[in-house]
Specification:
Length: 562
């Protein structure tokens, strides 16, 4: 079959797998898996790995498994298990009934280690961790055999049984595969496959005190579940020979195959789980779901949609190596998703009072405004207009600079969905000189939709009626991490990556004024705030008495602007 002609647009993994499947290496259907360790929350890089495994399974009419790599009781917790399941389902990659736990295979994995010992392919080693590292050698020098490498099968079996029964303290003994201490691949230099950990496991309790290393458990778990392709990120490429060695020595027929794809990073964000843990648990941010983090729970709370994340991943395509993608592409994917689906409302973040002197004193009117200029199906809404309104403070300039087309003294501007107004007088605080109020007049003939075709104005600004406005708080987000050139510390004095945290990564604006249309907003409901960007009702801080909005993304890319 000429694969390139049959599937010209598919990625390199699909092409590779399709070519391999032509030889019919499996007597079973396609099956892939995503194996997260439940020691933290998923992030945008995890979404890329999930998408890769899920879509490959779908492409070949197979099954997708979620399997927790939970064989280290010192790090793992049910909180992370529940969060991972929630995130994967939210993304749209529901594994259904195919949710598995590596810890459920503890007996099978232990017996696999026993089998290797019986075949002379594994041994119990008493070297301390630092001694094992020293014996391992370097890329330029071969390793040295452990003095315990030639223990008899009987002694190794006895010692391993005692390890399992809790006779020895942690770190006193390990089980190592017996492969080749002179191999150019350091992963094959008698790697540790079992260690002692005296800690309660969140699922198995105190049933076990010996636990397998991931490189040993991974291929066995795949074989037990009839996985056909173990699709891993690129850092596992050098581990593939060990993956194949384990399956071969244990005699699995039609063993699964490990294949690798590139690892995704984003500019300006941390995707290392270790660093994310420091941020979330060290008080630098508001937990794992802080909207500044690239965790899926953080992106969801900020207001990202699963559709936008899937579109972002599909836009990137399949990558072969470590790749860093500009975060503006993720924001662009979100704008594409929201621009035709959200209602555009008026919100004044920094209010400036405007009194329309020739408007009736005790009157107001309900004006009709379109909900979304790009989607007529979203209809229209009523917005109350009255004598006293608020506009955005930076929409007024007493002495306008060149190119300023909003409101200024003795000039006109259109109020969105309403009338032309002209500023006649500026009121200032006598002590500070700060502008506190504008006195304006309106032209009743210029009402929007009235068919007025007279003089024109260059600018349109948003507003809210003072009498009808709803107060809320708004969280505005910027990059969490500063670029090196923007750090207010000499480069030689930077002690920790946390020195790069941007102090302006979240700005809270209190008492923002919005249309009453938002008053009954639902949790996580999204809006476009005219000229300010896309916003979402915050699910953590909104109460019955107070609305809080997170800015999901500005209307235009601001990440790369100084």
């Amino acid at each position: 079959m000429d694969y390139e002609k049959e599937h010209p647009t598919e990625n390199f993994l699909c092409r590779l797998i399709c070519e391999e499947l032509e030889a019919r290496p499996f007597g079973r259907d396609m099956c892939t898996r995503f194996p997260p360790e439940p020691n933290g929350y998923l992030h945008i890089g995890s979404a890329y790995a999930i998408h890769t495994n899920y879509t490959i399974a779908q492409r070949f009419n197979g099954t997708f498994h979620l399997r927790f790599d939970d064989t280290n009781p010192l790090k793992e917790d049910i909180e992370y298990v529940n969060a991972i399941i929630e995130d994967i389902k939210w993304l749209g990659y529901d594994p259904g009934k195919h949710i598995y736990y590596g810890s459920d295979y503890s007996e099978e994995i232990y017996n696999a280690a026993v089998k290797l010992i019986k075949h002379g392919k594994a041994y119990v080693c008493d070297l301390a961790p630092e001694e094992i590292t020293e014996h391992r050698g370097t890329l330029a020098e071969p390793g040295r055999n452990s003095p315990y490498r030639n223990r008899s099968v009987e002694e190794n079996l006895e010692l391993f049984a005692k390890m399992k029964n809790g006779v020895y303290p942690a770190l006193s003994k390990v089980v190592r595969a017996k492969i080749d201490m002179s191999s150019p691949n350091l992963n094959l230099r008698d790697p540790v496959i079992y260690r002692i950990i005296h800690a309660e496991h969140y699922r198995t309790g105190n049933d076990w005190c010996v636990y397998p290393l991931y490189d040993f458990a991974h291929p066995i778990q795949d074989a037990i579940e009839d996985i056909t392709y173990s699709l891993c990120s690129i850092e596992f490429k050098d581990h593939r020979p060990l993956y194949d060695w384990v399956l071969k020595e244990l005699g699995f027929s039609e063993p699964p195959r490990q294949r690798e794809f590139g690892r995704l990073s984003l500019t300006g964000v941390v995707t290392s789980k270790r660093f994310l843990r420091q941020l979330a648990e060290g008080g630098y941010v508001d937990g794992w779901d802080d909207p500044r983090l690239p965790t899926l729970s953080g992106l969801r709370r900020r207001g990202f949609t699963p559709e936008s994340i899937r579109r972002f991943i599909e836009e990137i395509g399949s990558i072969r190596t470590q790749s860093t993608v500009d975060i503006s592409l993720l924001d662009h994917s979100l704008r594409q998703d929201l621009k035709a689906t959200t209602i555009c409302v008026m919100a004044v973040l920094h209010p400036l009072k405007v009194i329309i002197t020739n408007y009736p004193d005790v009157d107001f009117e309900a004006l009709e405004i379109e909900n979304n200029s790009e989607n007529e199906a979203l209809g229209k809404r009523k917005v109350n207009f009255s004598k006293t309104i608020y506009i955005e403070r930076d929409d007024f300039m007493e002495l306008p600079t060149k190119g300023f087309h909003r409101l200024s003294l003795n000039a006109e501007v259109r109020l969105k969905g309403a009338y032309f107004i002209k500023c006649e007088e500026v009121i200032k605080d006598p002590e500070t000189g700060e502008i506190t109020e504008l006195r304006c007049t309106y032209d009743v003939l210029t009402k929007s939709g009235s068919g007025f075709t007279g003089r024109k104005v260059k600018g349109t600004i948003h507003w809210v009626s003072a009498e009808h406005a709803v107060k809320a708080d708004v969280h505005l987000y910027e990059k969490l991490l500063l670029e090196e050139e923007d750090i207010p510390i000499p480069k030689d004095d930077i002690q920790n990556w946390t020195d790069r945290i941007n102090p302006k990564s979240m700005v809270i604006v209190k008492d923002v004024l919005l249309e009453p249309f938002v008053e009954d907003s639902r949790m996580a409901q999204k809006f476009q705030f005219f000229r300010h960007g896309y916003f979402c009702v915050d699910t953590k801080f909104t109460t019955d008495d107070r609305l809080v909005f997170n800015r999901i993304v500005p209307l235009k890319d601001t990440w790369n602007k100084k």
